[in-house]
């Protein structure tokens, strides 16, 4: 049974446990009849090992949408752009009606004053174990959500910095990821078939686009050709869709990861064209 099948089966709340299991139990309790949950639990639950793929997929899905709701509320109000960003993620994941309702309920739970951010982040980090690429993908999704209304508010930046710290990322790493996401959003705005819908700035001069391409790869414009190539390979490896899914990224997020690798490739090709690299 897929991770989603086990969600609707209701068995996860008992097998997963912890604050994430409790959060899932509350959300499912709002959507499914209690008798149906009990009847379906006989279909099987999660494995108990932290490395179980379906378990990690469910934890990732739950944490993304609940923390996204918490982030949206942190500056005092949830903007239409932030709501639209959450719905865009759902559309990119091609969630069906039931899955969208589940994601929306998680988003709403994250907005509540009693949301247990730190315990959920601690369990999320534990469940992901050494899957650092998954943790980075999680942070990148939240950064995109923070910039959904055009800018990151100070409260959002403080919260994201705290989230990074809880997940084992240094301030320097957070700064680098922030730069990469900002560059990605700006770089994507120049591409006519970009999937991003929240950038409205006019096309940028070539020099600015080139700087954004370097930032996307996480290197300075002064980097050597070999350093640029290594950075490109590293970014492609970290965001490879099949590798991320194998590590526990929900299959529904495959399109997001694929678009990310396409943008990384476009940035690399932009640099190669200027440098005459092969």
Please provide a written account of the structure.
There is one protein chain. The longest helix is centred in the C-terminal third of the chain and has 22 residues, at 254-275. Mean pLDDT is 78; it is low at 32-51 and 192-205. The protein has one domain (3-275). The chain has helices at 3-9, 12-16, 18-31, 34-40, 53-73, 80-92, 97-110, 117-128, 132-146, 154-166, 171-189, 206-217, 225-238, 241-247, 254-275. By secondary structure, it is mainly α. The termini are far apart. It has 15 helices and no strands.
Count of alpha/pi helices? 15
Give the structural class. mainly alpha
Give the overall form: globular
Number of strands: 0
* Tally of domains: 1
Percentage of residues in DSSP E strands: under 5%
**Cα-to-Cα separation, first versus last residue:** 45 Å
Write the layout of secondary structure elements.
Layout: H1 3-9, H2 12-16, H3 18-31, H4 34-40, H5 53-73, H6 80-92, H7 97-110, H8 117-128, H9 132-146, H10 154-166, H11 171-189, H12 206-217, H13 225-238, H14 241-247, H15 254-275
Can I get a quick summary?
Helices cover 70% and strands 0% of the residues. With 278 residues, it is mainly alpha-helical.
What keywords describe this structure?
278 residues; single chain; 15 helices; mainly alpha
């Amino acid at each position: 049974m897929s991770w989603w099948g086990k969600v609707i089966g209701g068995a996860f709340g008992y097998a997963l446990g912890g604050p994430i299991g409790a959060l899932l139990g509350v959300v499912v309790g709002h959507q499914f009849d209690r008798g149906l949950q009990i009847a379906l639990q006989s279909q099987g639950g999660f494995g108990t090992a932290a490395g179980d793929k379906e378990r990690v997929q469910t934890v990732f899905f739950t944490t993304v949408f609940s923390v996204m709701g918490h982030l949206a509320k942190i500056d005092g109000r949830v903007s239409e752009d932030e709501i639209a960003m959450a719905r865009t993620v759902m559309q990119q994941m091609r969630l069906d009606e039931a899955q969208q309702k589940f994601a929306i309920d998680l988003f709403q739970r994250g907005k509540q004053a009693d949301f247990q951010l730190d315990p959920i982040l601690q369990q999320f980090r534990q469940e992901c174990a050494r899957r650092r690429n998954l943790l980075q993908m999680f942070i990148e999704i939240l950064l995109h959500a923070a910039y959904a209304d055009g800018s990151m508010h100070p409260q959002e930046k403080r919260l994201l910095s705290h989230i990074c710290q809880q997940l084992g990322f240094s301030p320097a790493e957070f700064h680098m990821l922030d730069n990469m996401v900002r560059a990605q959003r700006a770089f994507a705005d120049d591409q006519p078939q970009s999937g991003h819908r929240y950038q409205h700035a006019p096309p940028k001069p070539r020099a600015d686009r080139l700087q954004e391409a370097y930032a996307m790869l996480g290197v300075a414009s002064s980097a050597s050709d070999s350093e640029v190539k290594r950075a490109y390979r590293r970014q492609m490896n970290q965001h490879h869709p099949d590798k991320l899914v194998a590590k526990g990224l929900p299959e529904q997020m495959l399109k997001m990861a694929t678009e990310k690798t396409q943008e990384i490739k476009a940035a690399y090709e932009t640099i190669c064209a200027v440098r005459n690299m092969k």
